[in-house]
Design goal:
4-stranded mixed β-sheet; homooctamer; alpha/beta
Chain lengths: 223, 223, 223, 223, 223, 223, 223, 223
């Protein structure tokens, strides 16, 4: 059965977002086969959920030209450079443990040539921290908020700005917060109007939504 | 089997809080029997979860001298008067729908001769509302916070004050917030240190905890 | 305690979206008080979750000038007219039972002067129905998809278009689908990148998110 | 107590499906005892959920003549050969991570002398992939669909074909999809009529159902 | 917006099963519009989940020619007659409360011209009842088993016969069995190989699966 | 703080069952301290949930005189001998994976001088196996039934005998059966009257209930 | 299809407990048919979950000779008299709302000619109440404990007596206690050894278990 | 991105409780950076959830002056000494496995200069143990009760004393008690008035609540 891999290179042309390789649950053989396909087409590629162990299991040939970030478990294949324009997206984190997810979002944005502003450690237990950043936040048309535990930051930020706010609940927490359901439900039940959310720990998905909202599809349609 | 009612008049002597009559699930006959027992001992009595229908089903004799509040579904039997001292407890609500629970707490406090300050409609979707009350809040040694939906107000208030904060999650909400689990979990998972919580919609319990914390038991022990 | 109502008229100035009145759990007295406040300020007002029974309980004076829609349980106070511009938002429903939520979204958009295109009864059990609308869908920068049951339509539409897709899971269904959790989880777990979601049956929230994404806040910031 | 093993060799005669050995939770000693019983009766045997570690723990004698497949964690004892007839069953997978379950199904079918057509990597995020296989799918009287995440593929395929469709939800996914409940509920709540499902990751059970549906029992009854 | 009804008459041609009208959540106006569409096309129609109240709300014109069964909440429009052939499907119920679901299945089969054998009140608490019917059961290629509570009957029947067994868990029960999750999970976790299941109370779906399995689609494809 | 251990040697005198040492979550130091206390009082002792690793971590002195069984993770301290009388309790298991729990029950019974009859591998997928043991089962006043997966065996056995039947659901299973909730709920929702249950995997508790039911307390009270 | 009723009169002969009629979910026609069958055989009959409305819907002929108790929703058909012997079973309730379930248990015991001692309103919030009954409790070989809310009474009683203790969790409670899951889990997780439990609100089942434990089956077998 | 650490030294001044470092989910680099910040400000620091492995991964320089307790996974940085005053807080544990959480609470209290009385191994299965400590308990204005399994001790203690009682449910248990939800729900649903609770295993939070209740904030406000 070999690697049984079919890759959807068609997606970029259809919806303006390339398929990313979600590495969790894939064997080394399968990841390797996808990398070979991408290299054969000279296509840049984003890999998510690639653990340090899984990355180390790849051959030297597979790893060549891979920009791997062990904190966010992401890798980027192919020539790319940091985005040049002004940041349209702010990425806000409640606590230190949420930074790994923030980096997944920021690297996904960068892969699609979008810069981002990182605002870290502004959880509501010390409300003065987020209040000090209000003006800065309001200058970004899209704000991604990343929080675990009780996720109170989602509502607080959504009540502060007029742009699109995307919540990313994280699995940070214990007891009733373990796994991230409490933060997820806080995002969904928010009293602040217009907050939207993605799945737990899905920094990649939030970045894709930001890209959709920022109207990159416009260019696609007009081409 | 008649009314099968035994009432714990002993409790007041033992722990300084009288047993309240939780009327949900009790028949008219049973509530009537308890009222008769209390009148026979000349004992004031607090009834909770007495719906308007259940109150209307009581006989005129049973209702005589009952101070019934239909918004909070509470009734107080026996001569009592509003508490005279300064309020030691602030009762804060996020939205209009939470007021019924706030009134259960305030009336339970009053029954035990404790005044309270009501602060209403200060949910975090418009953060400026709660920020405007910060100094006032900090003057109360105990703050009861009542909120449904995502319950973000619990963490915000706990991060503002140094006194004891007691959360009462409410069943206000729909979808994932239906029944109050989301607000409850937010209280339990709060990133603000020292927040405690009671069961969903349990304004009575929060008031009892406030009374315990305010040291009324001291008098009891020294008597 | 009267009606205990404080209304956040401040919100419009701060974030560009006015507070809507969520009527579920509010008494007739409270709704009436809010209407009076709005009339006093000459402020248009959107009411959601106003059941036919609750609407009928309002006085004639309260109902004067209220545009009530019994299918979506929404009411609009004050002079308003249908939006004039081209529709930037498509509102797609899987089945007939989802139409009530779609109308809540469409009326919220209209209240903020945004036209919408309604595309109904295109569930995936007969895939040819949604395929026939693909080009039309792709012309809208924002697509709101409303579905209950298993919510497969969310992923299918997100795979078809490059714009922002907002899922509204509905409580339509029975057995494991009862209450809408299955559709909600399908939206969150979607294999299509960049899909975002709001709470179950929250057509109002999806419309607010669309308004945020469409950049109305830009005008706000530049004013 | 030794190995405490009793094996139900009677089952084949009664219902036309032999008992398979579910190895998870069994000790090496117990598996070894069952293999000895089967060899003693000259009976071919299918083992499922035999991890590579558990397989390696068996003695050389136990492993002799075992055809082990480490991707699907299945083993077959005894002389057997690939099925010769035309494939009556299509086995469809949404993503690369679902292939391990597909192989369990295909090997169970092969053990009962049924050929299968494998169709891989046709998840709905790129709908054009499954649409391209529609005619091929419709030629099989039974279609097994294997998907994790939100399981939208179940409804899409069931809406395309007139034969029996059996869903196998997989535990592929994270956040709300972790463990496979979301995919399972999608299968159960499907809007497409006549879809049936088995337990999460149960490729073996889906294959048994296909065998039952294909009428092999007919021969059994007529013999 | 009128009735907003689009009906998928295309489905019969595509997959050999006509769309049924799931009436729960539909307004009288919407049901009436669908009936009119069907009459206009001279198309027979099956309606499910039509409660006696909903049926009574229809006009006399709408009800003309409707064969309504109040026990199963189903209605059939158009000329039809009981199926003539021998029963290929056995429909087995554990208790008296499950009969309403059994009738939904039997009427769905009849609508598609399939006769069924009803075997009632054979729950496992008195095992001798189902044992007495074993030979009869084994003569049917498809067996639909309908049970609530703990659903033990699913495994017992599947262990007795070689044909396809389809479980329909019902919402009959209280405590942990309330709503039908316990019976559903019993079907999914069954130790008997090859059992498949549909959603709770979904007699209609089980019948559709039986029709798919019986190969009616063959005729369709060869026509 | 040393080992912080207080042991309830009082229990035997009060209720006729000695406290057992539940080792899960205890440190080696704590287990060692309890063993020393027991030896000091010359008191026999039963230890449960003592994993092979935890047993190996004990010192030679601690292990002296410990009868350890690695299959059931139980240990018995002090002179004891197999029970001499006729078995009053039958211990029935559905599958091979349930034997570890059966042994915990049987050893707990033996520690209290009660013999037991083990009946293994009689799951309902092959119903003829349990039917063959019906007469034997009916001769025991107490029957403990141990099953995972869907737990259908609980109801089948309870429908066969007139004695007390105690269910022990086990964590054997995967998908919806993972962790044992499905088997537990089957026991609780059983249609067979008079079935009782204990917690998942709690063979020790079932044995204690059997001892209570067999009236050993009578002797205690009369002494 | 008429009433579709088959009644298991065989059960009494087989296991010594007659089948009771669980009326919830049955139509008036079905209950009536069962009563007629019982009268035809001159067989006494116990009916449970017969609501006042359902009882009132029966014809005068059906109600003749029925001893109906509206508090416990039970009815007994046929000549019977209160049990004459000393009570072997104590039935303990935590609060007034649990009495309805206690009466179901006591009447089921009485139907099988077993007397019971009722001990009411002894919840642990006032521990002195249950402590005062300790000696009385210890004189009964079987104790049925009925409690809702947090169910702490189960463990307290089990720690006091040496006989068999059967927990009946009730659906009394609100918030996290709503429906009875919290009390049920308390019974299952009890730290007191040998406690067994039945389903929520299942007073009938607890009584049947008590009858099984009291060895009535012995007489049956020796006859 | 370096360590991305911002620490809220402001908190002490604002609410009288310093921020503790919750180490779970933080990298060695991040913990090290926080320690350096604290040393730079000469600020004492409390660290929680620091596993032995995480502690061992710190450099010698980082560990210098750290008072680490491996049983409770806490560490204290900076000169401190055991509290000198009389204990105002009693810390009660049900079983030996709960001691780790008790120590987290006691060390948090000590860090804030509050002495505590430890009362261990007084679970309700042997009720005489807690009854013997009643007078001692009543002398403390605050009682923290720590219990896993069914958590019956929470209600028993709350019924005994008049002071503030704070429940800490623990994750001690298996089956339905696994993870601590059963104990948590017992605390929330308690029939004893005024009991409050914190998240599962949150000894730190309970101690913070005790400090808030004891009025340390008073000094803060008057300064």
């Amino acid at each position: 059965m070999a690697a049984d891999v079919i890759f959807d290179f068609e997606r970029q042309r259809r919806i303006g977002l390339s398929e990313a390789v979600f590495c969790s649950g894939k064997t080394t053989l399968q990841i390797s086969a996808i990398l070979a396909l991408a290299r054969g087409r000279n296509s840049p590629l984003l890999l998510t959920r690639l653990t340090p162990d899984a990355a180390a299991a790849l051959s030297d040939a597979d790893r060549a030209g891979l920009d791997y970030d062990q904190h966010s478990h992401t890798a980027i294949l192919g020539p790319w450079q940091p985005p040049a324009g002004a940041a349209q997206v702010a990425v806000v984190t409640a606590g230190t443990s949420d930074v790994r997810v923030a980096r997944e979002a920021i690297r996904t944005l960068a892969f699609h040539d979008q810069a981002a502003t990182a605002i870290t450690d502004v959880g509501v237990a010390g409300l003065w921290r987020i209040l000090a950043r209000e003006d800065e936040l309001r200058r970004h048309p899209v704000v991604i908020v990343i929080a675990g535990m009780e996720g109170a930051l989602f509502s607080v930020v959504t009540g502060m700005v007029g742009g699109l706010v995307i919540a990313v609940p994280t699995s940070t927490g214990y007891g009733v917060a373990e796994g991230g359901r409490t933060a997820l439900h806080s995002a969904l039940a928010s009293c602040a109007p217009g907050l939207v959310t993605v799945n737990i720990d899905n920094g990649y998905g939030a970045a894709c939504a930001a890209i959709r909202a920022l109207g990159l599809h416009t260019a696609l349609k007009s081409s």
